[in-house]
Amino acid sequence: MLETLTGFAVVGLAIAVGYLLGRIDLLGAHAREVLSRLTFFVLSPFLLFTVLSQADARVLFSALLPVSAIAAVVVIGAYALVARLVWKRGVGETVIGALAAGQVNSNNIGIPLSLYLLGSAAYPAPVILMQLLVFTPISLTILDAVTSGRTSVWRTVLRTATNPIILGSALGTLVSVLGIRLPPIVIEPITLLANACVPVLLISYGISLHGQRVLGMAGRRRDVLLASALKLLVMPAVAWLVAQYVFGLSAHAVLIVVVLAALPTAQNVFNYAQRYDIGEPVARDTVFLTTVGCVPVILGAVLLLG
Which residues pair with 104 in a beta bridge? Predict the structure, then answer.
């Protein structure tokens, strides 16, 4: 049980350090914005390239991929319908909230938890692939269009194709599929930068928590609660139903997809909210609530299915 909590302990320490830095104002007033841009434009692309290029192509395109995709699409669609049609939220804010409900932390929490709980760090790879090569291009294209005010098809395609996160993900997948073995002189410098991504992102998130109260923004509490409930309860339930009764996966495979679906909201969603200055309170609070709340959910899933 202690090993199971190791991934959460690592994440919690980095966030606590960031909060302390924000509290004593060690990095100055612009620290959050600088770290956000560093993560988005530099460190995240290297991390995603490293993870995907070293993943087994057979795992990338296994049955875990469609099950995880269906579970994510269901909760993203459910949130978008309520936020857009019932609460009349803007397009950009709806996108951020929907990602908070359906995009999981498959890197810095998913990989260590998969290793400790499921016996392999490779299981989150299909989810990483799906999120970064499907959901991320669509989401960033919409956010680009909303924030720039222009929807030129050519401009949208160009910005999507040159987005550093998408480029890193696509190149990493290509290396894996083609079976290319990168020499140490190439992969080791890339890995060095990749290893800096998670701590910097978590520290940036911790800094953003200083001076904020969870569910403290009036008018957006229901957005956070809906996204958190969909993420922690509905998404794992949908994954279990689809894996068990639609795809007929083995007991171990069912456990894998349920644990992956129960992972907390990805910190990347908070990074996107910062980058485009849309829905940051919803992303920040949902990340916090789901990171704390996923512990009993995942442990319960392991006890019931493991």
Answer: 265
Residue 112 has pLDDT above 70, yes or no: no
The answer to whether residue 215 is domain-embedded is yes
- Domain carrying residue 67: 6-305
Its pTM surpasses 0.70: yes
Q: Is residue 1 situated within a structural domain?
A: no
The mean-pLDDT minimum among 2-6, 40-44, 69-73 falls in 2-6
Distance from C-alpha of 109 to C-alpha of 7, rounded to nearest angstrom: 6
Tell me: the pLDDT tens digits for 48-60? 898 888 877 777 7
pLDDT in the model for residue 213 = 73
Question: Residue 235: inside a domain, yes or no?
Answer: yes
Instruction: Check residue 71 and report its DSSP letter.
Output: H
Q: Give the count of domains, the chain.
A: 1
Q: What is the CATH number of the domain that holds 213?
A: 1.20.1530.20
pLDDT digits (tens, 9 = 90+) for 82-108: 999 999 999 999 999 999 999 998 876
